[in-house]
Amino acid sequence: MEENYNKKFYAIIGENPSKGARSPKLWNACFKKFKINTKMFPIDIRREEFKNIFEKLINNKNYLGGAVAVPYKEDVFKKLKFCIEKKSKLSMAVNCIIRKKTLRAFNTDGEAAFMVLKNNKLQRKHKILLLGLGGAGKAVASQLFTFSKKNLYVSGRSIQSKMYANKNKINFINWKERHNNLHYFDYIINCTSCGFNNKQTPINKKFLTNITNKVFFDIIYMPKKTKLLSIVEKKNKIINGLEMNLFQAVLAFSKISKKYKFNKILKIMKKVK
What we know:
The chain has 273 residues and is of the alpha/beta class. The chain has nine helices and eleven strands.
């Protein structure tokens, strides 16, 4: 993207969204169908350039918003804390920005993940283990905590993960102990980045061999079947991140205007290959 881009545009920002992010295809299909004269572009930003480029972006009146990808969801939250919708604040991360009269920031990851889980028969009585409390993990955790705080357990690798769980009174399991009681849980959700290269798994295979009749949900959508899902699929139900990715894009696009309804947007985006 040229810094002096002189037309109204949307963007997805991240470390390398140009290498496979689906948002541009999904959003641009809707722009075309609704006859909106604009486009979404991917903008790759190196960590050392983030502060400078993001400030230029939000000060550019032609920038109408868009999506935020890994690893900047929490950074954008800190930058735009003053304009984040109330229900997104617990997530401490942003995946969607919309400029109307002013900038507004949202997180649709948690709501999208919850929709997927409800479609797969999640109930309040079910015990949930969520692994990873980065930007997407916090969003999913905050949504599930609202739904069933007693039966939600989270585990993260950082001190900040434990601090987040303690501050919000969410059951926390130390990362080294995450595999100890897998039989206890009905739903196991991977929100870590383990699996993007299809060579890693957040739980070692030896702890998964005898796990049966659980629901494993990996929010990663590339590859469609991560190593974790490949290991457990014969004895358990598996869900990848494709539907969540679709739902979060639909929810985000619906923020542009109330006249663009969820089901209409969903119908258009579902056709995108």
